[in-house]
Amino acid sequence: MIVLPEARKRGFAINEKNLQQQIKRTNAHLQRSKAKYLSGKGTGGQVDTAGMALWGLEAAGVEPNELTEAVTTYLLLRDKHIGHWNRTGRRPPSQASALTTTYLALRALDAFGTKQQQETIQSRRTGVRDWLKKMKPKDTEDRVSLLRLWHYFGDDDDAKKSIARAIKASQRDDGGWAQLPDMESDAYATATVLVALAQTESLQPDSAAYKRGVAYLIKQQKQDGSWHVKTRSRPIQTYFESGFPHGKDQFISMSATCWSVKALLLTLPDTHKHTKTNSINESGK
Length: 285
Hints:
Blueprint: H1 3-9, H2 16-32, H3 34-39, H4 46-59, H5 66-77, H6 98-112, H7 118-132, H8 140-153, H9 157-169, E1 177-178, E2 185-186, H10 187-199, H11 208-220, H12 250-265, H13 279-283
Antiparallel strand pairs: 1-2
Helix pairs in contact: 4-6, 5-6, 6-8, 8-9, 8-10, 10-11, 10-12
């Protein structure tokens, strides 16, 4: 849901039926847990699941409704006493960072928070803003989300520039980025970095560094069109086959593939005028 609308904006014909199927599937998933969201309990994956679901719906152009209000109600109840949102799993890289979880929550509230929720949302923003001043990122996932969060707040250009410099300085000789200092470059880390740098206006897609990252991604792409990244997560459920390539690595590889396509798409001109500003990720606050 995040990649297909981006491709359409860049002049590609997309499978609209498939996009609608993903919207329907996501809505059905949220609907099954609506009562839990309203009670503040959430569902498997907690804030990460809820935040990514609403990001997808936002990207697909879905407007706020009773179902999204149930999810934002949950987000405002969750972790309300700690000043940010805590990570909800230990499945690195994408579900192991409190910075990522907090970004997903704020993004969802920014897109789908109701008028009646704005006072509480602003209070949560203030808590996160104070928390960020003390945060020291541990890995690439942390740095990417910290950059997005500083861009979102838009009131500390020095902090944003500092984390952007650190990210850019960690680009490897092969043009890619690694999840951890002792790991090799991979498509997930590289693509998430490129997209974040581009959409926070920290690196232009026509810059030499971005082009090196793109060249790395193109070199790593498999013949079937996908990207393969080895999982770092310990299994927490019985394996099942989704149909995506790469076996037990398929879920991180699916994410890496989507982000890689997004990174490549951002090098192309936008052929459509924006009809809805994606404030938290693209234009800041």
